Amino acid sequence: MEKYVMEKKFKNPLISGALSVIALVIIASVGWVLWSNIWKMIILAIGGSSVASLDPEILGHFLKESVEGTFFWMVISTWVWFTLNMGNYGKYAKTTQQPQAGIRYSGLAFLVGIVGFAFFVTFLGLWWEPFNWQVLFRPVDDAQALLAIKGWSAINFFALSVILAQIPLVSLFSKYPFSKYSKEPWTVAFGTLSLGLFLALLNWIAFIVPSFMTLQIDGVNVTSQPFGSWATALAWCQLFIFFFLIPAEGGEGYPQKFITTKQPLEGFIGLGIAVGGAFLFLPILRNLLTPLADSVGIAPDLAVASFVLTIINVLLTWHHHFDDYPNKDMVPSAAGRILAQLGIVIIVGAVLGILWIKYLHIWPFGGNDLGLGHPMLGIMGGNLFI
C-alpha cells in the first residue's frame, strides 16, 4: 500500500500545530453555524406542519438531537470507519492533489454516513417505534416527539459505540487478526471494518439502548440503567477511551509493550489496563471536579466526562498536529519522551477542560446560538465537534 506524507509549510511543530489549532477553531465556529442551520431547515421542511406545531421547548430539543445526529453519523462514525479502520483506503485513488482528494473523500464519507443511517433506521424502524421513519422525522404530537427524541438519542450514540468498539481494534490490536494473516490492504481494511461494525452493534444493543430506553415485560423492567446514570456512563467511557488511545497516540505501544508485543495478548492487556484505569480514576476525578460542577449547575460525572474528553482532544491534537513534540531527536529516551508528551497533554488538557466547562456558552458549537436560533451541541457534543 502506498504511503502519502503531508508536507507542512512550517517545519517547527509548535508553530505548525498552533496555527492548525487556530484555523480549526475558526472553521469549527463557522462550520457548525452553517451545518446546523442547513440541516435544521432540511429537517423542518421534512417535518412540515406537524413538527412546526410542537411545543417550543420540545421542538428545540427535537431539533438539537436530530441535527446532532447528522454530525455523529456523517462525520464521527465515518471518520472511524474510513480513517482508522480502513486506513484511508482509496483516498488518493483519483488524485493526490489537495484539497481535491480531501473534498472527494469527505463527500464519500458523508454519503456513506447517510446510507448507513438509512439502513439502520429502515430495519430497526420496522418493529421499533422510536426508530420509525415517521416518528423520527414527522412526529404528530408532543408525546410522539418525546419518543422521537429518545430514538434520536439512542441512534446518535451509535457513534459512541463505534468509538468504544472499533477504535481499540486499531489502537490496541493493530487490526489483528487481519493484519497478521493478510498483506492485502483491502482485506485488512474491510475485515477490520466488518469485525468492528459487529462489535459496535453488539455494544449498542447491550449498552447504549438500555441507557435511553427501559424495556418491560408484563410491567416488569427487563433492562437496567448502565452505571446507574447516563452521566456516569459517559464519564466512564471517556476514561476508557483515553486509556485505550494512549498506546497509539504518542505512547509508542506502551504500557502493554512492557509485557508483550505479541497479538492478540498485547491487545487484551491494553484493554484490561483501559478498563481498570477507567474504574480507578472515575471516583478520583468526581471528587476533584464536584465543586466545579456545582458552580455551573451540572452533574459531577458530566463534568468528569467533559473534562476527560477535552484531554482526549488534546491527546489527539498533540499527536496529529504537534507531531508528538518533543520528538526522538530532542529526547532519545522513550520513557522520558512519552512522559514529557503525556505530561503536556494532561496539563494543557486539564486547563482547557476547566475553561470549556466554565465558558462553553460563548462558543457557537457549544451554547451560543448568536441570535440565529441554530441548534447547539452542548457540553459533550460541542467538545467532540472541535
List keywords for this structure.
386 residues, mainly alpha, 2 domains, two-stranded antiparallel sheet, 14 helices, 1% strand
Fold and architecture overview:
- The chain is mainly alpha-helical and 386 residues long.
- The chain has 2 domains: 13-53 and 228-386, no CATH class; 57-224, no CATH class.
- It is 68% helix and 1% strand.
- It is built from 14 helices and 2 strands.
- Strands 1-2 form a two-stranded antiparallel ribbon.
- Helix 1 (13-52) crosses helix 2, helix 2 packs parallel to helix 6 (158-166) and helix 6 packs across helix 9 (185-212).
- The longest helix is centred in the N-terminal third of the chain and has 40 residues, at 13-52.
- The two termini are 31 Å apart.
- The relative contact order is 0.10.
- The model has no long low-confidence stretch (mean pLDDT 90).
- Keywords: Membrane, Transmembrane, Transmembrane helix.
- The chain crosses the membrane at residues 12-35, 70-87, 108-128, 154-174, 186-207, 227-246, 267-285, 297-318, 338-357.
